[in-house]
Every structure is written in structure tokens, then in C-alpha cells.
Amino acid sequence: MAMFRVIVATNPADDPATKMLSFWHKQVVTLAKEQKDIKVFELTREKTNKQNLTELIEKNNPHLVILNGHGSNDSVFGFSQNILIRCGENEILLKEKIIHALSCNSGKELGPQCVKVGAKAFIGYKEEFKMMYLKENDNDEFAKLFLGPAFEVVFSLIRGFSVQKAFNNSQRKYLENLKLVIMENKPVFNVAVAPLLYHDLIHQVCLGDGSASF
């Protein structure tokens, strides 16, 4: 009997920021489906709510949970800001999982609490996730600078790297992009882009067992 690595992912895509995440998340789904040993279960748009996420996790027991969307210190949100996971409420759902949360602030309280209740690892951001973009498409040059490093975590996990290595790969790409924009020596890069990239770099967190792999 074949053994599968299972991913459950949320993709609300309900405003400009989360639509940008959605463009990049499609690359994650494509890469995952190219691997014969991975099954992907995805909640999109209005289906991204607490009840559906709970049922999907309980039914499929995923090894990796990808949470794309807005967040707060203790929560991650789905469609129309509906709470999906909240500290003290249902974080136990993520026990024994590896979690990547591309959502503002959720690495501050929710991440540590998930690890405390038994999640293998949590990679996310302890402050606001910041980015710039000009056009709502997957080729926006500004968005690539931010979302390339952010999504590198998941790309690396899918390719078999450990949690710590996936985090390191992401951090390295942030640094590479930061050096790139500084070397351009253009006002828009130095004044606007570089500080935001540096912000994401220093506020990205890796919690739990760094040796765990998906």
C-alpha cells in the first residue's frame, strides 16, 4: 500500500493581498502534484472556513498544513476574516503537523502555542508580513522579491528538506534579494523595498523541531 505525504492548504484569495498569495500558492500546488507521493487538499475562496478546515484535517491527517491569509498574534484567518485557528480554541488541530503560516503576526503567540500543544514545527512571522506589488498577477517584479523567499519554505519542504533547512533557504533568498535591491541604488528600492524586505527577514521565525521533515 502506497504511503503519501499529505498537504492541507488554505487559499482564501478574497482581497488584493491574499490574491497575490494565491498566484504563488498555485506554484506550490503544481510542484506538489508533480511528486507522486504527495496528496494535496486545498480550501479556496468561500470554502476557507473553520468548519471545512477542521473536517479536512481530521479526515486526512496531513503532515504539512499551509495557512495563507491574514492573521493576528493569536489567530489565522480564512475567507472574509473568519477565524480558522485561534490560541486557546482549536490549535490542537495542528498537533503533530508542520505548519507554514504566511499570515501577519501569527508567529508571535499562535506559533509558540502550536508547538506547545505538540505541533512538530511552525514557520511564520512574528510581526506583520510586508510586501509591495504594482500589478495583481504572478509576474509582478516587486511581489517576486517578497513572495519568492516566503514561498521558498514550502518549496523546500516539498522537495524533502528539513524544517530548519527550508527556513535557512528562505532566509538566504531574503538576503539575496535585499542585496540585489541595495545594489540597484535606486530611490524606490533603497527607500521603499529594502526596509520591507529587511523587516520580513528579521521577523520570520522557525519554531519547534528543526530536524523534522515533510
Which key features would you list for this structure?
Rossmann fold; alpha/beta; single chain; 214 residues
Explain the overall architecture:
This protein is α/β, with parallel strands linked by helices and 214 residues long. It has a single domain, classed as Rossmann fold, CATH 3.40.50. The chain contains six helices and nine strands. The protein has a six-stranded mixed sheet with strand order 2-1-3-7-8-9, sandwiched between helices. The chain has a three-stranded antiparallel sheet with strand order 4-5-6. α3 links the parallel β7 and β8. α4 packs antiparallel against α5 and α5 (163-184) packs antiparallel against α6. The protein starts with a strand and ends in a 6-residue tail after the last strand. 45% of the residues are buried.
- Biggest pleated-sheet summary: 6 strands, mixed
Strand order of the largest sheet: 2-1-3-7-8-9
User: What is the CATH class?
Assistant: Alpha Beta
Low-confidence stretches: none
The total number of structural domains is 1
Q: Count the E strands.
A: 9
Mean pLDDT, rounded to whole units?
94
Radius of gyration: 16 Å
Share of residues in strands = 15-25%
What is the CATH architecture annotation? Answer: 3-Layer(aba) Sandwich
SSE order, one letter for each helix or strand: EHEHEEEEEHEHHHE
Backbone structural class: alpha/beta
Cα distance, first to last residue?
Answer: 19 Å
Tally of individual helices: 6
Shape: globular
Instruction: Could you tell me the CATH topology label.
Output: Rossmann fold
Helix content: 40-55%
